[in-house]
Specification:
The protein is 20% helix and 26% strand. The protein is an alpha+beta fold and 82 residues long. Strand 3 and strand 4 form a beta hairpin. The longest helix has 9 residues. The radius of gyration is 12 Å and the shape is globular.
Length: 82
């Protein structure tokens, strides 16, 4: 992880978007990726992301049965809920 990513992640992790992704009953479709999904991992381009309201540029998806916050520009997992 680059040093510039640390402040960005600190801000992102303190925002309420993970609660929304966790509580939204509409997000039931999921995908399976080989191995364990981890923050920083790039997702396949065919993974459908649901936008996070009030957080432009971020979406979420159910990955391997768990919800993940994803940066829509890079398609990388930012936060993964076990």
């Amino acid at each position: 992880m680059r040093p510039l990513h640390v402040p960005f992640l600190a801000i992102l992790l303190t925002t309420p978007c993970t609660g929304y992704a966790q509580d939204d009953p509409a997000a039931t479709r999921g995908v399976f990726v080989p191995g364990q999904a981890t923050p920083g991992q790039a997702l396949p381009s065919n993974v459908l992301l649901t936008p996070v309201p009030g957080k432009p540029g971020y979406g979420y998806a159910v990955i391997n049965g768990h919800r993940a916050i994803v940066d829509e520009r890079t398609n990388r997992i930012v936060r993964y809920r076990d």
